[in-house]
């Protein structure tokens, strides 16, 4: 059994914020806004998954990620399926996920060049508690005024198709080549499978569970790491205390106690619940 409290890595982004979220120190007013906080595993090994908080004040780029095969064909370790649990959103906040109607790659390319791609996409209103799974290939954009907990394959390959004129690099040819041109179809979600267990994602790249307060004995198979993400509350796992806003990786057999009021996510690679 091993429980490791992860260090955080803050990433400044043009669409980030100066007022973050309980448990996260705000950047000083004269510093650049922080858009992402990543939880980093110690050492050099690149784990399968990456957990991030996202804090937005403007729309992110319209973007797409390659899948495993497309990434590996480009010499990259893996693709990037990702999913978002909305923790907070302003009343008019939206997320774009896929085109509203089927579109051919040439039309998508032209729309990315002249900015009309914004209107091609399906912008959905979002509120706290909403959940979206975006498989690799899904053209997407997270909107303004949103706090998100993102669980993703551990990849930083983002192909930007459109960036609202911000002076950042675009990756039009790569992006169009991996874009799914059909409307988004929601990913199957098993949901509540026991009184104290909800499965938000069960494959193909990872499993994501949501738990409340209580005591659990977990046994992760040999070689499998689990990421425990306390969204609210606090507790102890294998003698390591955790609080909302932190992240603990687990290996082997672990005993977990989460106090009343806790809201926990638990992610691990694979396509089947343990
Ligand atoms: O390219 P920008 O706009 O900075 O957005 C990059 C960010 O996009 C989000 O949708 C997620 O995929 C994040 O993991 C990623 O870091």
UniProtKB/TrEMBL annotation:
A single MF term (Gene Ontology): isomerase activity
InterPro entries cross-referenced by the UniProt entry: Carb_Metab_Reg_Kinase/Isom, RmlC-like_jellyroll, RmlC_Cupin_sf
Domain of life: Bacteria
Record bears the keyword Isomerase: yes
Gene3D superfamilies: Jelly Rolls
Entry keyword set: Isomerase, Metal-binding, Zinc
The protein's name in its UniProt record: Class I mannose-6-phosphate isomerase
Top-level taxonomy: Bacteria, Pseudomonadati, Pseudomonadota, Alphaproteobacteria, Sphingomonadales
């Amino acid at each position: 059994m091993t429980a490791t409290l992860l260090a955080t890595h803050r990433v400044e982004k043009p669409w980030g914020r100066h007022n973050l979220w309980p448990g996260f120190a705000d950047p000083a007013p004269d510093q650049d806004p922080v858009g992402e906080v990543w939880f980093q595993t110690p050492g050099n090994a690149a784990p399968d998954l990456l957990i991030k908080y996202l804090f937005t004040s403007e729309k992110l780029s319209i973007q797409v990620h390659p899948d495993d095969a497309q990434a590996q064909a480009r010499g990259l370790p893996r693709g990037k399926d990702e999913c978002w649990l909305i923790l907070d959103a302003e009343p008019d906040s939206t997320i774009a996920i896929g085109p509203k109607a089927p579109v051919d790659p040439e039309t998508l390319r032209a729309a990315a060049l002249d900015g009309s791609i914004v209107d091609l996409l399906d912008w959905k209103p979002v509120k706290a508690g909403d959940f979206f799974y975006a498989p690799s290939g899904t053209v997407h954009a997270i909107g303004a005024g949103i706090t998100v907990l993102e669980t993703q394959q551990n990849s930083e390959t983002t192909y930007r198709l459109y960036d609202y004129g911000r002076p950042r690099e675009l990756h039009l040819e790569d992006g169009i080549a991996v874009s799914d041109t059909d409307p988004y179809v929601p990913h199957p979600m098993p949901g509540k499978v026991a009184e104290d267990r909800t499965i938000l994602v069960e494959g193909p790249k990872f499993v994501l569970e949501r738990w409340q307060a209580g005591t659990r004995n977990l046994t992760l198979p040999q070689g499998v790491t689990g990421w425990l993400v306390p969204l609210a509350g606090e507790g102890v796992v294998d003698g390591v205390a955790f609080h909302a806003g932190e992240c603990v990786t687990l290996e082997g057999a672990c005993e977990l106690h989460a106090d009343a009021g806790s809201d926990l996510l638990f992610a691990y690679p694979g396509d089947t619940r343990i």
